[in-house]
Amino acid sequence: MTQDYINNNKERFLEELFEFIKIPSVSADKKFKNDVLKAAGFLEQNLKDIGVDSVEVFPTEGHPIVYGEKIIDENLPTVLVYGHYDVQPADPYELWDSDPFQPVIKKTDIHPSGAIFARGACDDKGQMFMHVKAFEAMYKSGELACNVKFMFEGEEEVGSKNLEKFVRANTSLLKADVVLVSDTGIINNETPSICVGLRGLSYVEVEVTGPNRDLHSGLYGGAVANPINILSKMIASLHNNDGSINIPGFYSDVIEVSKEDRFQMAKAPFKLNEYKKDLDINELYGEDGYTTNERNSIRPSLDVNGVWGGYIGEGAKTVLPSKAYAKISMRLVPNQSSSKITDLFENHFKKIAPESVKVKVTPHHGGEGVVIPTDFPAFLAAKKAMEKTFGKTPIPVRSGGSIPIVPMFEEVLGLKTILLGFGLDSDVIHSPNEHFGLFNFYKGIETIPYFYQNFTELMKNK
Ligand code: BES
Ligand code: MN
Ligand code: MN
Q: Of 303, 312, 323, which Cα lies nearest the Cα of 208?
């Protein structure tokens, strides 16, 4: 019944998603504040239309949180569904092949039956909307197996600061048995997987100041330290020749993954040549002694996300700039503390600065990593659901991305999270031409109801 309902309403589901995606809910940019509000309003209305109760848009100091629930029986388990309706900025616009907020369907080699091209198509509007439509199908078919609570936020891409406050203030409203999130991916459309790990994040901005004003690079060049030259050297020193990170104490809390676990992880299909070809690079990079998939999941990393200063306009301007800047992110593994790493970075960066410059370090949002066990009812329910819809057992995979609210749910609500994502790495989330396969969108809607069924069954027998 539920699956028939999905089949009979496929086109409408997609039309509604398009409407949702067209609202440019960019959380990072004040210009879009009203659109973020509009996206919250769209969700509010959609949840009400499909029969969700107590739907409410909770204002916060930032963007609002949309909440709704369907309690069918206090004795049945409750699934708390989380998603984010905010999206990353679409910049640089000129690199998009079509308008980022006018979704279009195009076929690709990886998505022969078509993919939705738009900002937020995969991260996370397309994925969170699967839950709304899966609920609609279950509820309208009279087959909702347990209680549901929806919590959708508009600040994930800017650090979820107000969500944490909301969760802390509403622990009884949010009482549930598990959190269900679709904001990660699978290996490929033939190889289902479930994300069982996320990296933490420490993010800093640095400012290096040399002379008190921009100088003529002829009159002063060679005699006064150039902050861009200095910053480049400082950044270069943050990695050792073996690819490891050169900040004293950086690795002290890192837990080595066991040989057996690494052996299991290495079974996930991966083609190094295709990986290189896709990125148009001749050689890979990383910490000695680890594979590519290990380097971007079970090992920490440090990357400059942006660097600026001096003259970057047209032509040449001979200038020795007063200031240089960089944004630096460190992806952390579970047990590394984000605030401790931020402190270590700040102290180290100040220490390695020569006397010729002054250094300021400003921490941005961060978060902790997480590992999800594979032997509790919710995981088994997810595994069984994917087995049903893919015809294959999903592989547990640790991802390199970060969703800092996952460890927060565990800390504040005592709840584990199931990361039942359906995106692909090649969907280029956060980049121009982000997309989400139609196969993936519908596969998600089909799989979610089986999760509810299996979870309710497994909890009964617990
Ligand atoms: N959905 C992503 C994270 C993700 C994507 C995890 C794919 C695993 C696989 C999320 O929206 C995101 O972009 N997170 C940020 C961190 C956040 C604090 C801004 C990230 O990972 O950069
Ligand atoms: Mn996301
Ligand atoms: Mn994101």
A: 323
**In the listed set 345, 366, 387, which residue is the last one of a domain according to the structure?**
366
Q: Considering the domain boundaries, does residue 416 fall inside one?
A: yes
Residue 251 confidence (pLDDT):
98
Tell me the C-alpha distance between 457 and 141, whole Å.
Answer: 19
Tell how far the Cα of 259 is from the centroid of ligand 3, in angstroms.
Answer: 31
CATH number of the domain residue 357 falls in: 3.30.70.360
Residue closest via CA to ligand 1's atom 4 equals 401
Distance (Å, rounded) from C-alpha 155 to C-alpha 233? 35
87 and 213 inside one domain: no
Q: Which is the catalytic residue, given 156, 157, 183, 427?
A: 156
Residue 265 lies in a domain: no
Quick one: 22 and 100 in the same domain? Answer: yes
Residues 408 and 325 in one domain: no
Q: What is the pLDDT of residue 192?
A: 97
310 Cα–ligand 2 center, Å: 34
Question: What pLDDT, on the 0 to 100 scale, is given for residue 462?
Answer: 73
Neighbours of ion ligand 2 (CB under 5 A): 123-124, 183
111 DSSP β-pair partners? none
Domain coverage including residue 129: 2-198+369-460
Our separate counts of H helices and E strands in the chain read 12, 18
Q: What is the DSSP string of 374-393?
A: SSSHHHHHHHHHHHHHHSSP
